[in-house]
Design goal:
Helix content: 25-40%
CATH superfamily of the largest domain: PAS domain
Radius of gyration: 28 Å
Largest sheet: 5 strands, antiparallel
Strand content: 25-35%
CATH topology of the largest domain: Beta-Lactamase
Strand order of the largest sheet: 2-1-5-4-3
Number of helices: 6
CATH architecture of the largest domain: 2-Layer Sandwich
CATH class of the largest domain: Alpha Beta
Distance between the termini: 94 Å
Structural class: alpha+beta
Number of strands: 9
Number of domains: 2
Length: about 200
């Protein structure tokens, strides 16, 4: 039969547990990504780190936890329903993108990876701010629309013999009546003429 642990053994074990919790708390609070725990029933944040608080426009995690009302900050409240349905069905989500409204009213795009603990009534996860990526993607789409829907034609030539064309915008045929064709020497779309220099 094992002997009872001594008082010194218990003290040592308590100190080890406290040190482990301190290390976890330090990691949680200093992480560069948002980390959180939310209540399943209404999405209330039960715990959050400083990074998440800053993402949402708050000065501290404490202020964020006191003031943030989750349901008021979804740009599309239906996305929370989708998020929770996926969590309940699969148990986890990875890279679920959602648009939220920050404290100042501006919008932020977030990528959420989370796990659900229905037996405890909460979810835990990490959040990345992907607003910069979304803005860059939107800019590329707008640039593509400008190229393909405007009276401008875009060309990209390779710096090689005869300057083969690498890219020609799709609107070249509509605007100039010239077909886009691909040859073994690159794209050809402009007939050669004595006025063109190659």
């Amino acid at each position: 039969m094992p002997s009872k642990p001594s008082y010194a053994d218990l003290q040592k074990r308590i100190a080890e547990l406290e040190e482990s919790e301190r290390k976890y708390r330090q990691l949680f609070e200093t992480a560069m990504v948002g980390m959180y725990r939310t209540r399943i029933e209404d999405g209330k944040f039960l715990d959050a780190n400083e990074s998440l608080a800053r993402m949402m426009g708050y000065d501290s995690a404490e202020t964020f936890l006191q003031a943030f009302v989750t349901v008021e900050h979804y740009a599309d409240p239906g996305r929370r329903v989708e998020l929770m349905n996926q969590l309940e069905k699969e148990g986890v989500v990875d890279g679920f993108e959602i648009e939220m409204i920050k404290r100042d009213g501006s919008h932020v795009y977030l990528s959420i990876s989370a796990i659900i603990y229905p037996e405890h009534g909460y979810t835990e996860g990490v959040i990345l701010d992907v607003t910069g990526q979304k803005d860059a993607q939107k800019g590329l789409i707008e640039a593509y629309d400008i190229i393909t829907k405007s009276p401008a034609v875009a060309f990209l030539w390779r710096n090689a013999e005869n300057w083969p064309v690498e890219y020609v915008s799709e609107n070249v045929e509509m605007l100039l009546g010239i077909r886009r064709a691909i040859s073994s020497r690159g794209r050809r779309c402009i007939p050669r003429s004595s006025t063109m220099k190659t």
